[in-house]
Amino acid sequence: MNEYFILASILFALGVTGVLMRRNLLVILMSVEIMLASSNLALIAASSHVGNLHGHIFVLFNIAVAAAEAAVGLALIVIIYKNKKTENVDQFTSLHG
Amino acid sequence: MSSYLIYVALLSPFLGFLIQIFLGGKLSKTISGTISSLAVFVSFLASLFLFFEFHNVSFSHTLFSWFDIGDFKADFSVKIDQLSLLMMLVVTGISTLIHIYSTGYMHEDPLFSRYFGYLNLFVFMMLTLIMADNLLLMFVGWEGVGLCSYLLIGFWFEDDFKAFCGKKAFIVNRIGDAAFILGIFLIFSLFGTLEFESLYTSTLNRSPEMGFGLLSCITLFLFIGATGKSAQIPLYVWLPDAMAGPTPVSALIHAATMVTAGVYMICRLSFFYDLTPIVQNIIIVIGMATAILSGLIALTQKDIKKVLAYSTVSQLGYMFVAAGLAAYGAAMFHLTTHAFFKALLFLCSGSVIHAMNGEQDMFKMGGLKNVMPITYLSFLVGALALSGIPPLAGFFSKDTILAFAFAKSPLLWGLTAFTALLTSFYIFRALSLTFHGKLGNIHAHESPSSMTVPLVLLSCGTLLVGFLGLPPMFSHLFHVENLFEKFLGWESSLHLSGQTEWFLMGACSALVILTAYTATKLFSGDKAKVTALKNKFSKLHTLSENKFYVDEFYDLVFVKTAHKKAQFFWEKIDIFVIDGIVNGVGSLGRNLSILLSLIQTGRVINYAFMMFLGMILILLYLVKL
Amino acid sequence: MDLLLKHFLSITIFLPALFGLFLFFIPQSKTRFLKFVSLNGSILTFLMTLGILCYFTGTAEVQFVEKYSWIPLFGVSYFIGIDGLSLYLFILTSFLTPLVLLYVSPEEKKLKPFLILILFLETAMLGTFAALDLILFYIFWEAMLIPMYFMIGVWGGEERLYATIKFLLYTILGSFLMLVALIALVMIHHSTTGVFTTNLLKLYGTPLGSLEMWLFLGFALAFLIKVPLFPFHTWLPDAHVQAPTEGSVILAGILLKMGMYGLFRFALPLFPQASMAVTPYVVTLALIGIIYGAFLAWAQKDLKKLVAYSSVSHLGYAVLGLFVLNHTGVTGSLVQNISHGLATGALFFIVGMIYKRTHTKKIEELGGLASSCPKLFFFFLIATLASIGLPLTSGFVGEILCLFGAFQEYGVQGFAWGGETLINIRNIIFGTVGILGVLMGAIYMLNMFQKVMFGKPKFEDLKDLEWKEVLVLTPLIIMIFSIGVYPKLLTNKMENSIDHLVKNVYKYSLTTLSFPPEALGTSGNPESEATSKKD
After folding, report:
1. Is 0.90 surpassed by the pTM of this model?
2. How far is C252 from chain B (nearest CA, A)?
3. Residue C9: pLDDT above 80?
4. Rounded to an integer, what distance in angstroms lies between the CA atom of residue B123 and that of residue B455?
5. Do B374 and B455 contact (CB within 8 A), yes or no?
6. Which of B592, B593, B604 to mutate to test the interface with A (most CBs of A within 10 A)?
7. Looking at the structure, do residues B382 and B496 belong to the same domain, yes or no?
8. Which sign, positive or negative, has the C-alpha torsion C421, C427, C429, C434?
């Protein structure tokens, strides 16, 4: 049982590191997806451990939302790239106060 | 019938005012002047009828209810009694003459109808003041005449100085008015009424105040009001400047009528003043000091109107001395005779100024005697009356005051007599400088009849009015009663032996005549002697010529200081302190937000890191639990 | 017809807004028609308020009442009515608005929204004066801010943004405090009676115990900022200077009166003990304000700022008269309000007219206007005289009654001076300081008048007032004199309401509270509740 959670944690840490360290927008999006996947894994494992289907429903829902999110996110990235001609997040500072 | 006459007397000048203001521009000058003069003349006639009908009764008539709020009541009602009837006659009578005179004097002025409008409004306000049945209504007239005076002094407003003089008059008057209204407040708090009649009844069983009590406070405040309106120390400074107005205005407002309002008010409230001996003494001192000071200033003035202005201040001082001596009859008598001869003198000077095309410096005049005979003779009558040379008007009224002064203390008599000498000196100086000597290279001419007729009428008045109030020893001699005092109901309470009085009168008259003669000789002849005399007393002369620097002193001590305060309040307190706090609170918020916004770098990575950090913190918190 | 009579007051209040809505459908380009419609709307409103005046009987009761439940859960209702306190302010509002609309030039930029704002503002102002439900009042009160904000912010002068923000923040600060106090008041009423209500008449006399002072301060601060009382006045000069003439007139003529009205209607009768306790402090501030405003007006170089600071001074009298809490003083306070609305309104109109001709408001740059503009001279003169309180103008009536009131207050307490025991030294100070303000008024107004109107003409070919401008000023001048000569015109119908107010404040304030409120903490809750239950 623990193995699943350890794997999920590692995946999650990888995702976080990716979000924090990488500058490429696409890679950041992929890291976010990894984090989502890790949580899905943790949920499935917990669900089978507890023995009911709540976790499964949750995960299925998550996957659906993640798909939609990836579609919107990718579309946004394409538009940003078209406007700014770059994928480097350090260049996007228009929210600076 | 009677109440109808009251309305006519009071409202006909007001109607004249309305006509002038609303239709004035469309009327021709002749019609406009006639309407105004007629309006005042009708008022005079009405007063005359009222006089014959009511000269021995006293009543009040309510026009309408004015204030009636809680226990505070004041009606718009008029009081008809001997005192107000006398003043009404004097005011409307002299006003009529001056209106007629003005039609000639102001004939060239483009704002002719506005001038007459103001003049009519003045008469209305003055009548309100006189006829008022309560103090608040009196205050209406009191302020109203101040307003008219302001408008008329600054009538030629394109001249900055004249506009300034008008403003000065109004503001100095307002200082007095402020004290006056404070007096009204005190009276109301103390007696709960402002009507003269009920005030009189509530003072009946009071004994005179020994110390300086509340009643003294009231009378003193009212007297301060009077010093403003009647140009006494310390508020006399506006009157000489008021000469910036047209000369008929000086004659009417600043010599004959408005400035005597203070004396009238004290006589009206004599029952209060009788109860406050301390204030009475203050009045005597102030009146005497004013009389002497302005007499000294008048000695050296070059402007003919300034001489007359200071003379007015001085004569008003006389009236106050009389009022302070509780010789109200004498004060009112001097007021009446003064109204005649001072109006006469001013109108004469106006006639001269008119002839000289606006020149007012006496040293540039001279020798007008033959060119303007009527004006000259009238001026001479006025000067003789002012100096108190028998048997003209001023002699009787001044002598009565002198007698009362002697009864109080010989010193006071000495001072009043000294002032009489000053008076006679400066007025004959003015007369000689203007009319005697050599005719300069000027084209002067006698004034039109619209101006000379009032002069002649006023001269007659000046010659005759004195006989109305003969002092006791004359009345014994000729078996004629003192009509004036009998009419007013203030029988003279003077007990001097006949011999003393004859002696005083003789001594004073002889001295006055001597001074008049000296002055005439001195200033009619060559100017070298005058210059020599001037050099001999050069310091005194400069002091007097510069009016003892009172104006400068006031300006420095009061006006400049207060204005600096105003600047200080605005720039330091309002902008710096209050707005500083307000803006400070605002900018504090803004600076705080600027500080906080430093965290908002705009980089996604930073935000993500923050989020992560937050998650960890929450986790730690949960774990610890 | 029946409907009209039944809802007469509501219709009067919402009529301007209806006309405002109608304006939306008129194209921007038809300027004359826009003006015609809006003017007629406001005149119609004025006529309806005259109807209210005619049918108003001079009793103390609230009349023309309309009441409908609105949010029953919290007892909020649509509850309006008119009594002697609000009657004349109500009429003043509908009287000034047509004049303002008449003054608006058809060439004004963005005319349509301007007119619409003025009409909506009128509805909000009328509603504020008529509302008898706290929530309804609050809504109208806040609704006034919006049009005013835009009027200054869009049509204002060069520093309009600073002025609008200052104006808004000052007022909103006050309003929020009032809202908090309002909710607290309703909650306390609920906890003592078990009924939720925001009906003002039912809330009168709620025993509040030691909280009364805090609630009073919450309400009073909102109103005193609006008056404005020294030292909360600094928004006023900025707002006035930046506002367009129409805005200045409404601001000075009506909006400032809201503050005074709020004190009359809410602060004093709801919290009588607290009002009695703070009287010396408020009166002191009012006296300071009178003198301070006058001094500041004297130092000003800008015409509008001068008039604005003179308002601080004049409304000081109104606060003074109100807080001495006797019949004369309170009447004087109301009259002073009306009179200030008329005189200062006229002055702002005149300043606007001068600006239109000379394009400057700097006193130093003006001069000699009297030579070429005799009509302007007369109107300006009369407005100036009314402002300095010359007898027979309305200003005199207001000031003299306020000062008389101040002089009567405490008149019964012993003070021995020269054997008399009738007059308190405090009265003499009140009176003297107040009188000093009157004196100062003459100084700064006449100083300004001389510099602007007299002297050598500095401008060539100035046009005198047009008939339209004369039409704007004449009603104001007529009212100034009418009130001055016959003050009963106003005082007759307000007498009973004022009597009622004064008596009520005294009735509920038999026990006295201490001030400042910090001292309350020591006295403890139960005690003060016990004392307040006595009455």
Report:
1. no
2. 20
3. yes
4. 20
5. yes
6. B604
7. yes
8. negative
Cβ pair A95:B599 closer than 8 A: no
Nearest to B209 among C235, C418, C435 (CB): C418
SS3 readout for chain A: CHHHHHHHHHHHHHHHHHHHHCCEHHHHHHHHHHHHHHHHHHHHHHHHHHCCCHHHHHHHHHHHHHHHHHHHHHHHHHHHHHHHCCCEHHHCCCCCC
CA angle C323, C324, C328 (to 5 degrees): 115
- Cα–Cα distance, C211 to C417 (Å, whole number): 40
- Domain housing A48: 2-91
**Of A79-83, B451-455, B581-585, C391-395, the least confident:** B581-585
Inter-chain touch B599–A92, beta carbons under 8 Å: no
- Which of C333, C364, C404 to mutate to test binding with chain B, by most B CBs within 10 Å of its CB? C404
**Residue B555: pLDDT band with limits 50, 70, 90:** confident
3-state secondary structure of B405: helix
Cβ of residue B201 closer than 8 Å to a chain C Cβ: no
Residue pLDDT, tens place only, B463-510: 888 777 766 656 655 555 566 666 666 665 666 667 777 787 888 888
* Helices (H) then strands (E): counts for chain B: 28, 2
Is the pLDDT reported for residue B276 higher than 60? yes
The total number of structural domains in chain A stands at 1
The nearest alpha carbon in chain A to B607 belongs to A20
Identify whether A45 is part of a domain: yes
Q: ipTM score here?
A: 0.89
Enclosing domain of residue B368:
2-545
Q: Would A55 be classed as within a structural domain?
A: yes
**Residues of C numbered 276-315 whose beta carbons fall under 8 angstroms of chain B's beta carbons: which are they?**
292, 295-296, 298-300
* A21 has a pLDDT exceeding 90: no
Q: How many domains does chain B have?
A: 2
HEC-encoded secondary structure of C412-468: CCCCCECCECCCCHHHHHHHHHHHHHHHHHHHHHHHHHHHHHCCCCCCCCCCCCCHH
Of C370, C404, C447, the CB nearest to B185: C404
* Out of A20, A23, A97, closest to residue B612 by CB: A20
Q: What would the pLDDT profile of A23-54 be if each residue is shown by its tens digit?
A: 888 898 899 999 999 999 999 999 888 888 88
- Asked if residue B361 and residue B415 are part of one domain, the reply reads yes
Q: What is the pLDDT of residues B5-45, one digit of tens each?
A: 888 888 999 999 999 888 877 888 888 889 999 999 999 99
What's the pLDDT at C516?
43
Q: How far is A58 from chain B (nearest CA, A)?
A: 22
- Helices B373-387 and B328-355 pack at an angle, to 10 degrees, of 150
Domain for residue A59, yes or no? yes
C-alpha pair distances (Å), C424 with each of B172, B191, C345: 29, 15, 37
Residues B413, B282, single domain; the answer is yes
Tell me which of C164, C400, C417, C482 to substitute to probe the interface with B (most B C-beta atoms closer than 10 Å): C400
How many angstroms separate the first and last alpha carbons of chain C? 46
CA closest to A95 among chain B residues: B602
Are the beta carbons of C442 and B170 separated by less than 8 Å?
Answer: yes
Task: Look up residue B108 and give its DSSP letter.
Answer: T
| A63 domain residue, yes or no | yes
Q: Kindly report the backbone phi and psi dihedral angles of residue C206, in degrees, each rounded to the nearest multiple of 5, phi listed first.
A: -65, 125
| pLDDT tens for each residue of C260-296 | 999 888 888 888 888 888 888 888 899 999 998 898 8
CATH number of the domain that A49 lies in? 1.10.287.3510
B164 shares contact with chain C (CB less than 8 Å): yes
pLDDT score of C531: 40
